[in-house]
Amino acid sequence: MPYASDVDALASLIKQNPTWAAINPKHAARMRAQNQFKTGLDIAKYTAKIMREDMAAYDADTAQYTQSLGCWHGFIGQQKLISIKKHFGTTKRRYLYLSGWMVAALRSQFGPLPDQSMHEKTSVSSLIGELYTFLRQADAWELNHLFRDLEAAENAGDAAKAKEIEAAIDGHETHIVPIIADIDAGFGNAEATYLLAKQMIEAGACCIQIENQVSDEKQCGHQDGKVTVPHADFLAKINAVRLAFLELGVDDGVIVARTDSLGAGLTKQIAVTNEPGDLGDQYNSFIDGDVIESADDIANGDVVIKQNGKLVRPKRLASGLFQFKAGSGEDRVVMDCIASLQNGADLLWIETEKPHVGQIAGMVNRIREVVPSAKLVYNNSPSFNWTLNFRQQVFDAWAAEGKDVSAYDRDKLMSADYDSTELATLADEWTANFQRDASREAGIFHHLITLPTYHTAALSTDNLAKGYFGDEGMLAYVAGVQRKEIRQGIATVKHQDMAGSNIGDDHKEFFAGEAALKAGGKDNTMGQFENI
């Protein structure tokens, strides 16, 4: 509802309740406007619609891909969205990513943990709630400044300015954007997955990403020792997530089905199969084993399966895990993705070992032969050495073209000695264009970086600590942080305001009138940053 209309409606309501006479309808309307979303489910429904519209836009034009950065704290997510609005004027097609890796490493009560689903699963839904609390506060903070400006214009009798500001209030774009939330491998059986999915949705998640690893053997997507599950197990968890969405009324909730099969060489169990060619039979066809001719070939404890019409003894490790055939990863990825899309998933995630458009496109094109609308969420992972990967890709492309590459040592292309070379320059161009190229050629709808803010926090802290505790002293902070905040227009330079001090002052006035004890008076040192 437009602000002016809400003021009129509230004035009428207050008039009907004589004991509310101290309530100013403008204050009530202002507080309503600054709190657009009342519950996490309101957010989930709103952002699910955004994602569905963005998916349709991408289908029509692959240049309309979406992006996100992983954020491990509400403040980090808030500052990211404030920055996006400042630089680009809109949050359109920009999301947040909630990384299970960063929850494990930074948010567990056990302390820093590896990405192996050992952290408290409720930490995931708690972080979703925290992120949206900070994004809602960003709305309140931005609108609070507009309302202060409106009040100033009205007090000055500047009707034209007041009308302009009121239009900006009514047209305000929220900082609330979709979160793609990582539920790992579901943290247990399908019922456990359902219960956690409900918590995540109630906290505001419109999109849940789930992977096909064994829950109690889960590894980071870029670590060794990954173990996948048969499709029936994984699809049961997809069903659990879908039912959680439907139960809570988020009918267009989005499910991202991640496959780790490209790098996973192990399975914990042999799939149940009822007839040749079914999903269980296809899964089992990739298990490595030795053909047996008679019962004499079977030792105590051996398992035997029928594979392509022959009896096979699967290779079983001391851990009890079974081994897949070498080189079968890509075929298993394609099978996983088709099965997921045909059984309730909306988007795919293929975890790869390198950022290579051709490799990704090769798999997606095979998937699209069966499901033409298939599209990906892709991890632009910090686990890749991007500089080395793209320099080697350029090197290989030049070598294939017959270009002389004798001036370069392929294994040492990371060296700073190559930074100013033609090869390095082209590799940086390929890196800059990776998201555009991969969205156009390899079906990537959403590009994310899982844990960039883990690295940025470490890097910025290292730079500050090096200078502050060294010869620079206070200049390290002043020149390296505060002066840059001022000159780049970073709102946190007025950190009291960013934390909500001005909102609190205004509320005090709403509650107590002239008796309000405010923090923002003449003795507040934040005044040193006004008009800069």
UniProtKB/TrEMBL annotation:
Cofactor stoichiometry and binding remark: Can also use Mn(2+) ion.
InterPro entries: ICL/PEPM (IPR039556), Isocitrate_lyase (IPR006254), Pyrv/PenolPyrv_kinase-like_dom (IPR015813), Pyrv_kinase-like_dom_sf (IPR040442)
CDD domains in UniProt: ICL_PEPM
Chaperone among keywords: no
Keyword annotations from UniProtKB, A to Z: Lyase, Magnesium, Metal-binding
Residue numbers binding Mg(2+): 182
Needed co-factor(s): Mg(2+)
Catalytic activity: D-threo-isocitrate = glyoxylate + succinate
Any single biological process term in GO: carboxylic acid metabolic process
SUPFAM superfamilies tied to this protein: Phosphoenolpyruvate/pyruvate domain (SSF51621)
MF-aspect GO terms: isocitrate lyase activity; metal ion binding
Active site: 220 (proton acceptor)
Name the record gives this protein: Isocitrate lyase
